[in-house]
Amino acid sequence: MASILGLDGPVYRFLMRGVELALLNILFILCSVPLLTIGAAISALYTVTLKMVRGEEGSIVYGFWKAFKSNFKQSTIVWVILFIIGGTLTLNYILLPLYTGHLSVIILMGLILFSVVGAVYFVFLFPYMARYTCTIKEAFGNVLKLCLVNPYPTLLIICLVLGPAILTLFSSYLLALCLYFYIFIGFALIAYISSFKMRNLFEKYE
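and the corresponding structure tokens:
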């Protein structure tokens, strides 16, 4: 029992990991407040969590801030691109009822296809850029290739990352529950859990 509850025991390590993720979550939220910096914050978040799952993390604050600064320009450009894509898709969904007949079916199928591709890029681009040094063009191309070759892990990770946010659309109770979850630990915890699957996915091609 003493070894279980000791400083090297699983209970202590579990609690310390929880504290680290809560701190990481606070850093992510603070750096996301300007909105324009969300992309850099996501990249920094995954830089730390990908190191965590490999047992390579050091100082949480220093590691996050260093990654935030080094990836700022590239991640911000990608965030703006994804924001424009997301806004365009949302506008087309809003205008969808204006179309009738076969045209509406064709447009809906196209929107669903582009939405899936957009979800892939939103979920995987920032972790990929956090893991590898590459250009934006290379990141877009490599992420799409990676996900097409590995559809089942890709779908699992997308559901894990976007699932809680999608649940908020179904009821005000789930919205309130998810807000508390995200504020206290949610962003960092989801990134940490998904980083295990992403690590396995990335290491297949390293």
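(Above: one complete record from the training split.) The chain has nine helices and no strands.
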